[in-house]
Amino acid sequence: MTESHEAIVIGGGPAGLTAGIYLMRAGIDTLLIEKIISGGTPLNSWNIENYPGFPDSISGKDLMDRFTAHAKNTGLSIKEFSEVEDVSYQNQRFIIKTTDALYESIGLIIATGTEPAKMNIPGENEYAGRGISYCATCDGAFFRNLVVAVIGGGDAAIEEGLSLANIAKKVYVIHRRHALRAQKILQERAFKNDRMEFLWNKIPIKIGGKDQVEYITIEDTKTKEQTDISTDGVFVYIGARPNTAFLGNLIDRDEAGFIITDEALSTKTSGLYIAGDVRKKTLRQISTAVGDGALAAVNLERYILGQK
Ligand code: NAP
Question: Would you say the C-alpha torsion 44, 243, 256, 294 has a positive or negative sign?
Fold first, then answer.
């Protein structure tokens, strides 16, 4: 049987939850479908320092628990542990197929965010969960007083590297250039941290060990010299890949796979709006995801009212 709603939001991170809140407050019957649990990528952040309203910072989990509680207070239904496999558009209705159900709606907001990019080097899959991680908040505690390597030079690598430095005895930051991409305030903190050592102009080549990770082989981008660095863990933060596979040709993507929208956050398919990190945009933050969620919801509300 097909369950019917006026609007469906796919993805329960900051963008999706905000869209849900705005739609429910506009009196639109809305269902939010989430692959895992409500909260999205910020659940993996130890500390959020740049979301206004929390001058002493807040953990990603605490912040997203507040988003979720707020969304539930509006009456929003959130279906967790439900992965969308396919979306089609027929007779001005979206048909959404998940692993265990079928839904239809007049309008749809995609807020599926991103997943961590992989290094695609030997040993990466073999040692996943045995020393390789993409989430310091989830796995950092296993590395108390041990040595870890963080790969990348963006906000995520430096922010999570700083958190790991509170637990591990040493944090190598392996970066492919000689300048970080991360926000200046994070850079300054990292450069002052005695437990963090920067290995510049280096790329990961191989992960090795016996049962667990024991070393990472890195290559100098200029001299091509290869070195083995002893480490107990490798945390990978080399960017994010958008989750759009289930959308087929309903949208246009840029060369990196992010969804292209217009200023109204709409797409070439009527009634299909995009919000948050999955969208082609210049700044991916909780604050910009929230803005996207609100705008997509208000524009979808107008569309739905026009359809009735
Ligand atoms: P990112 O900003 O894209 O940074 C990825 C880093 O990995 C860059 O330093 C990049 O090097 C490096 N890299 C990329 N591909 C690589 C490869 N194949 N091998 C080795 N290194 C590679 O990604 P992110 O740090 O995961 O952040 C994702 C988005 O979330 C960003 O928009 C970020 O601003 C946002 N974010 C914000 C916060 C915050 O505001 N507190 C926290 C976390 C994430 P290059 O610098 O040379 O390109």
Answer: negative
Residue 51 Cβ < 6 Å to ligand 1: no
Quickly list H helices, 41-183: 60-73, 136-139, 155-164
Q: What does the pLDDT look like over 71-123, one tens digit per residue?
A: 999 999 999 999 999 999 999 999 999 999 999 999 999 999 999 999 999 99
Give dist(CA 277, CA 263) in Å, integer: 15
Which atom of ligand 1 is the closest one to the Cα of 238?
Answer: 7
The β-bridge relationship of strands 30-33 and 2-10 is parallel
- Structural domains in the chain, CATH included, are 2-115+240-307 (3.50.50.60), 118-236 (3.50.50.60)
What is the distance in A from the centroid of ligand 1 to the CA of 237?
6
Whether ligand 1 lies within 6 angstroms of the CB of 237 is answered as yes
CA pair distance 51, 41, nearest whole angstrom: 14
Q: Are 116 and 110 in contact (CB under 8 A)?
A: no
How far is residue 266's CA from residue 89's CA, in Å, rounded to a whole number?
A: 15
Confidence (pLDDT) at 47: 86
Is residue 153 lining ligand 1, measured as CB closer than 6 Å? Answer: yes
CA 114 / ligand 1 centre spacing (Å): 12
Cβ proximity of 234 and 131 under 8 Å: yes
Q: Residues with Cβ < 8 Å from 181, sequence gap 6 or more?
A: 153, 154, 155
Statement: residue 308 has pLDDT above 80: no
CA of 26 to the centre of ligand 1 (A): 36
| DSSP secondary structure string for all residues of 184-216 | HHHHHHHHH-TTEEEETTEEEEEEEESSSEEEE
* Nearest Cα residue to 34 out of 67, 1, 63: 67
Residues in the chain: 308
Catalytic amino acids?
Answer: 135, 138-139
